[in-house]
Specification:
mainly alpha, Arc Repressor Mutant, subunit A, 2 domains, 10 helices, transcription regulation, DNA-binding
Amino acid sequence: MPRRRLRVPLFKESVPTIQAGEGPAGIVTVCGEIRFEGVGIPGFFAQSGEPMIEHFDGPDGLREHFIVLLAESARPQFGTRPLTEALLKQCLILLLRRKIERGGAPLPWIAALSDRGLSKALHAILHRYSEPFTVETLASIAGMSRASFASRFTKAFGQTPICLLRSARLSRARELLATSDGSIDQVARCVGFSSRSSFSHAFRQAYEIDPLAFRSSSLVGADSTS
């Protein structure tokens, strides 16, 4: 069901806590939000229809990691915020590993990461996005036939290999537009587009703004915060 995001003011070097109800303390629940940015694909967790739950106790639980996390949160000091963020990321990685090992991965792409072929293709898309990949070349990297690769990839990641490749390219392009001085043509070529026109068209479709206008707005935002 849709959940409303509760925002609590973050004071410098502190972690917000919220107490629900007036009675004595009962169940302690730790909630965290991790935002993925940069070269990556948005929406990987959007397919999750319910929360992932892990028990603290047991030989393969997360008790020790959460003890450190809660202790740091209870006594905020210098560096608490970046440390707790790192701990939450560590817990997320361990949680996903356990889900894969138990065969209960709640998202198709989590299980797909244990597939060596699909993992190799995904790695190529995310880290070699400037190369002129096709479904055929990606299938070759995965060691599969074109039809089998396209079907398994789309089922696992919720979109076709080429759509995912375009998303990776545009994500990197948006980062370059905001942080580099390269021309629009240079950015387009850097992320694998053959022409400025095709790049601009894809960028407008994805972000509803022209690349040049996006760069201008990014520069205005940077000046206002400097």
